[in-house]
Design brief:
The protein is an alpha+beta fold and 385 residues long. It has a domain of 206 residues: Transferase(Phosphotransferase) domain 1 (Transferase(Phosphotransferase), domain 1, Orthogonal Bundle), CATH 1.10.510. The strands form 2 sheets. The protein has a 4-stranded antiparallel β-sheet, covered by helices on one side. It is built from 10 helices and 7 strands. 41% of the residues lie in helices and 11% in strands.
């Protein structure tokens, strides 16, 4: 559905700041369903202001291609970090994964509690919580991303196709997978599934294909207990992964507190950073090198194309609620810039100015004509005395 680019804003006195710009694929730009999903993501996520949710700064459209501007998160997805740790033969410490999961639950609770201007809860459900949609920054902060398929009241893209299931089946709550009514507790199941898989190395409902997995999910049986984990952790996961939503944690805040209580000790952001960067340092260094190279290249283009400095283009604001109008995460950056030629300011003349100028011109003609006639009469001795 979209691509994510690295973008740079340049200001006065050498000020620069990096952002992630998510753009619709050009081939999807004319498909109304995708445009509406894109707008819904912007409208929902832009209202969530929380440290554990990626912030949307702006929304716009350029040459028919819609884009969203996100904060730039210097880091990697939980999926990448877990895979790198596994490849190194040193799994992430349990408390690190629990800390990331607790932060994720904190961000989801902010989304679940989102209200409109009248104070009515919007009933937001992310419904695609997965290791790919949890970013861990190089400062140890976890951020949930991609509300592209989120469910919410007043969403423009209501269910238009019966039986359509959105999200990743591996982490999906039974009621969501079976197209039954669901609420925020589906996200709680998903967080539990993410932690279960990250800690045990196997899926909650492991199966050779999607059909067999869906059969297991719909059976009503709970997933196998993670007996290899400390009992306090296994207990939290067992409750979070209950097939019956009434038996789960009822809010993401409850899950957050339970995850924190199950840790052997509290983890600081610095400790999370140290643990994750132990496996991602090479990737981080490569990313920084590519960013530096991209910025140097952009500086050279700026110097040639705009000697007076970079040109800033104003972007449209996110439209108000109700106005009709393979997500990549911000990993290794690409660079795409456009320079807009500077236009001379348009001069608007006052409406009274033209008639006044005409009147003055006529008056001057009459006066000079009268002077000319008097001069001619005096030279030729004619005229009245």
């Amino acid at each position: 559905m979209a691509q994510v680019w690295l973008a740079r804003v340049s200001g006065k006195h050498g000020f620069t700041k990096l952002f992630a710009v998510k753009t619709m694929l050009p081939e999807r730009a004319d498909e109304e369903d995708f445009r509406v999903m894109f707008l819904d993501e912007a409208r929902i996520a832009s209202q969530i202001r929380h440290v554990n949710v990626a912030t949307i700064e702006d929304l716009g459209e350029d040459n028919g291609v819609m884009f969203m501007v996100f904060e730039w998160i210097q880091g990697d997805s939980l999926d990448q970090i877990v895979r790198a740790a596994k490849a190194a033969g040193h799994p992430l410490p349990i408390d690190v994964i629990l800390s990331v999961a607790a932060q994720t639950a904190r961000g989801l609770h902010a989304a679940h509690e989102l209200r409109d201007e009248s104070g009515q809860r919007l009933n937001v459900v992310h419904r695609d919580v997965s290791p790919q949609n949890i970013l861990v920054s190089e400062t140890g902060v976890a951020k949930i991303i991609d509300f592209g398929v989120a469910k919410a009241k007043n969403r423009l893209a209501q269910a238009t196709m019966t039986g359509l299931v959105k999200g990743k089946l591996e982490y999906m709550a039974p009621e969501q997978a079976m197209s039954m009514p669901f609420d925020r507790r589906a996200d709680i199941f998903a967080v539990g599934a993410v932690v279960y898989t990250a800690l045990t190395g196997r899926l909650v409902f492991d199966a050779p294909n999607d059909a067999a997995m869906l059969f297991k999910i719909s059976s009503g049986d709970p997933p196998p207990r993670a007996t290899e984990l400390p009992p306090r952790v296994a207990d939290v996961l067992e409750r979070a992964l209950q097939p019956d939503p009434e038996k789960r944690f009822q809010t993401a805040q409850e899950l957050e507190r339970a995850l924190e209580a199950s840790m052997s000790r509290s983890m600081s952001f610095d400790e999370v950073t140290a643990a994750t960067q132990a496996f991602m340092q090479t990737t981080s260094n490569e990313r920084r090198a590519r960013i530096r190279a991209a910025i140097d290249e952009a500086n050279e283009r700026d110097a040639v194309a705009t000697p007076g400095g970079p040109v800033r283009r104003p972007m449209a604001s996110i439209p108000p609620e109700g106005v009709p109008i393979s997500t990549a995460h911000p990993g290794l950056p690409e660079q795409r810039e456009q320079h807009v030629p500077r236009a001379a300011p348009k001069v608007v003349w006052p409406g009274w100015l033209l008639p006044a100028m005409l009147a003055v011109t006529v008056l001057l003609v009459l006066v000079w004509g009268r002077v000319f006639m008097l001069s001619w009469q005096m030279r030729h001795g004619t005229g009245g005395g």
